[in-house]
Amino acid sequence: MKAFSNIVKKVHLFLGITCGVLASISGLTGSMYVWQPEITSALNQRLLQRESTNTLSEKTLLKTSSELYRSQKDTIAKIFLPYREQETVSIIYKNGQTLYYHPETGVPLGKKSASIKLFEDLLKIHRSLGIPKIGKYIVGSSAIIFFLFLLTSGLFLWWKKYKSNFKKGIKIKWKRNRKRFNYDVHKSLGIFFSLPLAVMAFSGGYFTYNSYYKDGLKLIDGFIGNKQPEKKIEAGTGIDILHLLETPDNQYALRAIYFPQDGNEVYQFRYIKNRFINPGLRKTRELKLDNNSNTIYSSSFNDDPVSEQIAAQFYPIHIGEMAGMLGRILVFISGFVPLILFITGLRFYYFRTVR
Fold this sequence. Notes:
Elements: H1 2-34, H2 36-43, H3 45-48, H4 58-72, E1 76-80, E2 89-93, E3 98-101, E4 108-111, H5 114-128, H6 135-162, H7 166-170, H8 178-192, H9 194-206, H10 210-224, H11 241-246, E5 253-258, E6 266-272, E7 284-290, E8 295-300, H12 306-311, H13 314-319, H14 324-334, H15 337-354
Antiparallel strand pairs: 1-2, 1-5, 2-3, 3-4, 5-6, 6-7, 7-8
Helix pairs in contact: 1-5, 1-6, 1-14, 1-15, 6-9, 8-15
Transmembrane segments: 12-35, 137-159, 188-209, 329-350
InterPro entries: PepSY-ass_TM (IPR005625)
Protein name: Peptidase
């Protein structure tokens, strides 16, 4: 048993030095990104905020979007309707430029600001360290290793030492020497935040390995005998694109339209149940059409199997929005914990080994 414990200690130390660095970067950038909607909307009121957006009908928003599409359709790559902090309509053009438009009148409001770009870059660092292609695999793999090995090894070491005295295992004695205080902070924060960190790490891995997660979740469908029901729109059904732009969906709000580009001859329509941030389940709908306006894919939350419904919740769980403001605050605080654990872990190693 002692030999096993020594192995666990070495694993915990090695992973703390390696994955701990990546977890610290992901945690800090994630904490900052939690408040992205509030910060960007406050800094870009002219581009993003409109007092009347909450009272505008879905038909009005679609009408504005369809008129913008009619007048500029050959140059448009994506159209984004009001969603989260953005209460206006934005268009990303094929040349990479982004412009914002009034949701009712269609009047141009301006280009993407530096603060919006800053948070986009922050998200890239959070998800891929800003490294093209392989960055997301580095971050995703470190999140899974953090979840499977770093947290579990830390919990094992804590349990082995404090299983007969839980109170001592969570208590921080403030009036102690630097070495003992450093150790108390490390083991107490580690145990207090083990659950939120585990949830954040596991859900974070989804954004890199979503196909594997979904395959694993399909076991739930097989276990409960859940079969995907027939969709309201069958593949191959012809639908006019302008009709979708001008006709509101009875249950979902149109969130974004992706137009064919880079050899991908597909029109993609994404819908959301609630346009703005709300606690609870994230309910979406997706529709894909080919160049002949034939349906090649259709899904909606209410018709999806349980595995797909669960997969749709990884984002609101990861960022804390599923639990409302309290969830977001918890994620914000938890994001600083990996850095604190990394620093206190290094100091503990220094105090115990070097000195």
